[in-house]
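Researcher: Checking consistency across runs. Here is OmpH family outer membrane protein again:
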Amino acid sequence: MKKSLLILFTLFAVSTTASAQKFALIDMEYILENIPAYERANEQLEQVSRQWQSEVEKISEEAKTLYKNYQSQIASLSETQRGKKEEEIVAKEKSAAELRRKYFGPEGELYKKRESLMQPIQDEIYNAVKEIATQNGYAVVVDRASASSIIFASPSIDVSNEVLARLGYSN
């Protein structure tokens, strides 16, 4: 009995506190879709990613070719020649793996490129949201695109268009 009263009191306290606060929502996906610089950044990332993937695939293909040639010549190669060919194949495969890691690894070039292109856009959005929240007294602004626990939110608290307007984009 005491436990259920405590839970009920806690819920009442939370709902009373929450009702005193002002909340707003943004839809980050919607905002980003309406910012041309974001689309250009994605196109640049796609282009550089294809270029780097092509480089990695070229070296991987070279390794496969070396291996096929090795397989077809293995009977006619001396032990020393086989060792050299095997080392050459391993070195080429290692080169492809290193290049893949350099470009696409967790701290790779693609990650760095994405950061350099997207961070200014994200900072600009953050600053616009912060200004709107400060001016309108919002205690919390939630991104509905990433907040999967939001089941329903009134469109009246969505300030996405206001953010776009603050950034100089009208929709």
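Researcher: Does this match what you'd expect to see?
Model: One thing to look at in this run: Residues 6 and 12 are 10 Å apart (CA to CA).
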